[in-house]
Amino acid sequence: MTTINELVTKISFAFSKLEEVEGVVLSGSQTTNSQDEHSDIDLYIYSDVEILPSIRKELLEPFSDYMEINNLYWETEDDGTLKDSNIGIEIIYRNYEWIKKEMESTLIDFQAHVGYSTCFWSNYLNSKILYDKSGRLQNLQDQVKVSYPYELKQNIIAKNYPLLRKSITSYFHQIEKAVKRQDYISINHRIAGLLASYFDILFALNDLPHPGEKKLLKIVTQKCEFIPFNMEESIIKILNNNTTLLMDINDLVDNLDVLLEKQKFMDY
């Protein structure tokens, strides 16, 4: 029986035969040693021009039991399950110049976002290159293997910290209004935003590129040196108990304040 690794190798080889393809990389939990029984296979196909969906469909059919071609919900993707298994596979198509500009934006311009500021850096940094036509992918990966820029850390905290509670437009104040209205959809939406900014700050404070939206509590516990007091307990209470929601958010941010003050990042 063909193993999953063998299937991935064969899929990578098949894509490498397409003239449009510049490179194929394996990414996600498979390359960060964080996979579990629910993990998918994440393959990224880099090119300078579009690979037609009809070509991708024909290429992938021998390797899959089920495949949705050209999903456009987040990025351009083909999503399905590998042949004779229940293991999911996501094949994401990216333009090489686009990812290069994303790396420059993060590591040269030090641009921060509202949540998930360094996810693309983490993704590319931790990718395993399976095929590299001209060496461009390896060259770019070598360039992004740098220490966490202090200016980037400053910008991420400056952009995200006020949104936790300080600004009049902060998530806390939006949640406060939503609680008064009993607008539960809005409450959940704003809590997700608050936690996105919170973890963006926390990973920056620990000089770690943001790993994405999955298994964050586990990753923080395993990899972060600086963790606010009672962080996990506070987050679980926020997500499970609306009766003390605003108090729990205050506790979460108060303890982050203590950590930021110790690290001399309390000017925001």
TrEMBL record:
Domain DUF4037 positions: 125-212
An annotated Gene Ontology molecular function: nucleotidyltransferase activity
Polymerase nucleotidyl transferase domain ranges (all copies): 11-51
UniProt superkingdom: Bacteria
A Pfam family this chain is assigned to: DUF4037
Name listed for the protein in its UniProt record: Nucleotidyltransferase
Organism whose genome encodes this protein: Gottfriedia solisilvae
